[in-house]
Amino acid sequence: MRTYLTTFAALAASTLIAGAAGACETTLRSADTHPDGYPTVEAVKQMGKILEEKTGGRLCIEVFPSSQLGEEKDSIEQTQFGVIDMVRASFGPFNNIIPETQIVSLPYIFRSEEHMHDVMDGPIGDEIMAAFGEHDLVGLAFYDGGSRSFYNSQKPIKTIDDLKGMKFRVMQSDVFVDMMDALGANATPMPYGEVYSSIQTGVIDGAENNFPSYDSSGHAEVAKYFTNDQHLIMPEILAMSKSSWDKLTPEDQAAVKEAAKASVPVMRDLWAKQVKASEDKVVAGGAEVIMDVDKQPFIDAMKPVYAKYVTTPELQDLVKRIQDTK
């Protein structure tokens, strides 16, 4: 069944791609699960404009948003196969195949979004980027996936003790379940679409996500207490198919890298504006946002989680270098 679905996805992608060819000599097709207008989508569009200018019209990019070329896992596979040229994806789908991506997915590994930027924009980011090369992908740029925090319908959460015994929806991830256990709360993995009604009916007390999702999902209507603990600040990647990359001249490869790098501040600026707009909107709607949180007790509670997932000297060294980055 998996082979059939993958083949079907490839055929569907090829059909869409065939109709998307523009006036450029080569049009690179880029997949994204987010809708048109989302910061990652707009950043890749801007990358395309820069690339077209740099190459005198030889190379263009056409973005296919809203999972037109398949859901994230499938679009990653199609990029590895060379059916799709580029993909913007979260780190989650790579956790089981690229250990370095699991490390930057650990709770509280980053102290702030600025710390995450400093790490991913430096030599550690280069090292993680290079790891994608072993999986038929060429890493081009790191984008932001936002910072995830807790929200609930019961009470303001100001300390780790406030979490004890509460029921929180988490993504279907072992790391997230272990994180909640370490904090003394009860993890309830469930699909994202079930969260609103589950909070409303008391099946769960709350969930965790970033401000734009808290806003756009309507969760702020049923879970009025938002604690900005930022337990997960996870980057995303824009990657290119190795087979598509190898078809380019060294000059055009350099142009692609330069255009991708130039799109990063565009994405970050758009994301920061979207986060601020969503925060203002939920506060105006009556949400109570707790910004001043002492994170250290939360961080200290993660020791058993790190012990479970940081299992080799190489990964332990990577964690230390991330934590030592100022």
Model description:
The chain is α/β, with parallel strands linked by helices and 326 residues long. Helix content is 47%, strand content 20%. It has 15 helices and nine strands. Strands 1, 2, 3, 4, 7, 8 and 9 form a seven-stranded mixed β-sheet that branches. Strand 1, helix 2 and strand 2 form a beta-alpha-beta unit. Helix 1 packs across helix 3, helix 2 packs antiparallel against helix 12 and helix 7 packs antiparallel against helix 14. The protein is globular, with a radius of gyration of 20 Å. It starts with a helix and ends with a helix.
Give a brief rundown of this model.
The protein has 326 residues and is an alpha/beta fold.
| Structure class | alpha/beta
Helix content: 40-55%
Oligomer: single chain
Uncertain regions spanning at least 5 consecutive residues: 1-21
**What summary fits the major beta sheet?**
7 strands, mixed
Radius of gyration computed on alpha carbons: 20 Å
**How far apart, in Å, are the first and last alpha carbons?**
48 Å
Order of helices and strands: HEHEHEHHHEEHEHEHHEHHEHHH
Question: Could you say which overall geometry the principal axes of the C-alpha atoms support?
Answer: globular
Total beta strands: 9
Q: Strand-residue fraction?
A: 15-25%
Q: Determine the number of helices (DSSP H or I, runs of at least 4 residues).
A: 15
Q: Give average pLDDT, whole number.
A: 90
